[in-house]
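User: Quick sanity check before I run a bigger batch. Here is a single chain. Can you write out its predicted 3D structure?
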Amino acid sequence: MKLKVTWHNLILAFVFCLSHLCLVAQQPTDCVNAITVCGDSDINLDVNGIGVQEFIGLNTCSSVENNSLWLKVTVVNNGTLGFTLTPQSTDLNEDYDFFVFGPNPNCNNLSPAIRCSTTNPLGAGLHWNLTGMNGAETDTSEGPGPDGNSFVRWLDVVAGDTYYIVIDRPIGNSPFNLEWTGTAEFASPPTNESSSSLELNLSECDAIPPFDDFTTAFDLSVNTDLIIGSQTNVTVTYHESETDASIGNNPITGLYTNISNPQEVYAKITDNDTGCFEIIPFSLIVGDGANYPTPSDYILCDDYNDGDNTNGQVTFDLASKNEEILNGQNPDDLNITYHESYSNAEFSLDPLPNYYHNTTPYLEEVFIRIENAANVNCFSIRTLNLVVLETPEAFNAVQVQCSYSSSSIFNLTNSNDSLTGNTNGRSTRFYTSYNDALNDINVISNSGSYSNVSNPQTIFVRVIDDSTGCFSISELELQISSTTVNNTQIIECDTDGVEDGLFQFDLNQANADILNGAPVGATIAYYATIDDAMLETNALSSLYTNTIPNQQVIFARVENVEECYGIAEIELFVYNLPDIDTEETVFYCLNTYPSTITIDSGEITSPSNYSYLWSTNETTYAINVNEVGMYTVEVTNNTTNCSVIRTITVEPSNIATIESVEVVDATDNNSITVITSGEGDYEYALFNEFGLAYPYQSENSFNNIIPGIYTLSVRDVKNNCGIVDYSVSVIGFPKVFTPNGDGDNDLWNIKGHSNIFNPNSKILIFDRYGKLLTQINPFGPGWDGTLNGTPLPVNDYWFSATLQDGRVVKDHFTLKR
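Assistant: Done. Predicted structure follows.
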């Protein structure tokens, strides 16, 4: 708990903080006027001087009152009572003293103080200027001057005991804080149970002559029940000043006439048992009548209710402004009337009817009398502007639609410019009857695609000023025009590189056909659907790619002076090109010249339905050629006249020319390599006496060739121009033979010779010691493994073969049995 005191020029003000509430007190300078310290209260006091000098002979601290503040403390529980007084300034010249009387003293017959301290901080050489009572001290008094440390022993108190504590300032003018210590607690004051201080404010009209001095009588007691609420054993008094309220002086009784406007007065609610109290300020306000702002302008659009929507006169429901004036208050508390003049409002004469038809066009000022229902002499006068907004200018229009029948689809909004006079900030709504347009009911919701019900048909239009919402009504006449224009077609071949039946058309190609016979100056717009054409929506670009492959119908709307003249159909055809391969390569065998080959115009189901033009100027489906080169033919569909160019490239081919043949033989890996030339692509094979020995291959070399006589065959596979043969011999010998009479491998001889290849070869056979055993004829059956008819043993034998081409081959072989 803290107590804050402000002291200036002998005017003492302090804020006393207990728990969470601050206590601001003024002028309790004598015991009988002591401020009751409670647990929760607000007090404001102006203190001047010391009142009656009451200390003389009643303290052991040798002091008298200088500038004193008396506090009355009643504890509600047993415990200890102490405090610490802290000046706001730390200057040691700020010197505070205190004195304690009690318990339960009599202000008219005080006993000596039971605690006091008049120590001077500077004189005592202290480092602080605090003072008070605490549990650490043992002395009960000290001072004056250098005596003591400014603190004495606190009090042991009993519930219900009352003490007077006097704070005295002999030197300085600093405010101070008073913090209560110990375990003692104080009684709580009663509370203000009104919802807010604003609820307690009292407002009255200046109802007492003269009516312009802003003073009148107030009954303050109307706030008593609001302040007390549910509390009992409390008393409420009213005072002009907070000092009077704090001390309890000069209570206001009966009716009170204010002395200023506005004026703050003070209610004091006091606990009758403890004396604890709370002070509640509130205001008295005097007005010359009900204090209401001027209402906003009453704005309406000119209308058709009086038969003229351009005269600036409408009927106003004046009572509809009452709610704005009341602003949530009870309508029974006020009388509100409307008048043509200020004088009529002042004297409450000739009130206007609630439904008032203004007499001054467009802007008329009327006057509102707002009077207190309980006191009709208390009133205010406010002005109200009745504003009539002008309606927008609207124009009748005609919309003509092309159709094949008496009905069509109209885009009503296409006439907006005509209906509004091409004025910005205007919008339109459409209705089928004048009454619907007047009352804004049954709006045509599909104004962009409306189907007429008769020809002609009148549509009623609200032309609306978007900024004000005001409207005028005009008429839109819908008419059907059945004038026809020329249908036509545009035909294109699908030459855009992608044969999908889609093509970019230049729709302007149809203009001449469509406009043939139309009025001079007629214009054309193209649309994908008949509805778009009739509604003039989604117009197509003049360069248009069809969306339905091969064949599609679009529509052209022809207008003359912005009126529909007719709608034409345009058939768009995309014809496929002749379905042939546009490129082909064929081959001509040069070795067959001057024989010819046939080239044609491609695979065509019905060739007679097409015409042909060759680069040779021939016009038949096929032609014969015997020269290589590039030939073209233009193939044209006789029905669609669509053409495509086919290119046939004749490339050369030929039989092979064998330039050389290389044979590597009499080895473990015999091989044949052939070198050819020619325009063809070639494959190679080897044939022996039994047929195909090595199948055709693209490689020109053969490896691991079995010894023997072969026919090398080279064929053209590029165009099958023919085969070239070449005989070749591969010399070789067996590594083993078995002369055992089983008919298999019984004889040994050199292979790969013939009457053509090495016919005069000489073959000698030796044993392992070099002894010549025999000479055999390469054309004979071969050696049977005997010498003079006697079979030779199993062993390795040697041979020497001298070939006709000069080669000598020497090696050995094995005889097995």
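The two ends are 138 Å apart (CA to CA).

User: Great, the batch can go ahead then.
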